[in-house]
Amino acid sequence: MAAISKNLVKKVRELYYDKQFSVNDVANKLGVSIDAVFYCMRKNGIKRRKKHESNAIRYERQKPSFKLKKINSEKLKILKVVGVMLYWAEGYKVGKRCMVDFANSDKDMILLFLKFLRRVCGIDEKKLRVYSYFYSNQDISKNINYWSKLTRVSKKQFSKPYIRDGFKEEKRDKMPYGLIHIRYNDKKLLNLILSWIGEYKNY
């Protein structure tokens, strides 16, 4: 170890600090054991990254599951603004869940937001999920069929619905088909939409 220490230290510093490789990747790149890399780091004052720093690097390197479309028409420009405004008003923005989550009972709002996700954000359809909220006296199967057909999202992508007791007759016309959440589990897309909201805040 001592004979190659000087050269090893230089390469470990470069790979770990400059290129931000993981210890495992450094070991594979240099063709040495992980123990050898740890030994080199300990003996030469190469501090290991903290957990939140490693998580941040992994996040930056993670490939997004969506592919933004080119905004090459006035119609798409307007759709982007509409989608961002809808999310600003009705979307999940804080907390532990790192996903896009838009909730509404208005079918036109749901359809507009989905159009935004599909035509502006270029989402992967397979990653779409729908979480539904119904009253116990409603026809659950009928309502799920309604939303699946309307949104063009397979019922296989619907999670188990929340069913609420205590239905009040005066609310019958308020949510005849219940309420649904359009969910897309990609933190990068959530952060992108939130950054667009931030831009419009300062417009």
Quick summary of this structure?
With 203 residues, the protein is an alpha+beta fold. It has helices spanning 5-18, 23-30, 34-43, 51-61, 74-90, 107-121, 140-151, 187-201, and strands at residues 100-104, 128-135, 162-164, 179-184.
Describe the protein.
- With 203 residues, the protein is of the alpha+beta class.
- The protein folds into two domains: 5-61; 74-201, 60s Ribosomal Protein L30, Chain: A.
- The chain has eight helices and four strands; from the N terminus they run αααααβαβαββα.
- It has a four-stranded mixed β-sheet.
- Helix 5 crosses helix 6 and helix 5 crosses helix 8 (187-201).
- The longest helix is centred in the middle third of the chain and has 17 residues, at 74-90.
- The protein is elongated and about 75 Å long.
- The protein starts with a helix and ends with a helix.
- 17% of the residues are buried.
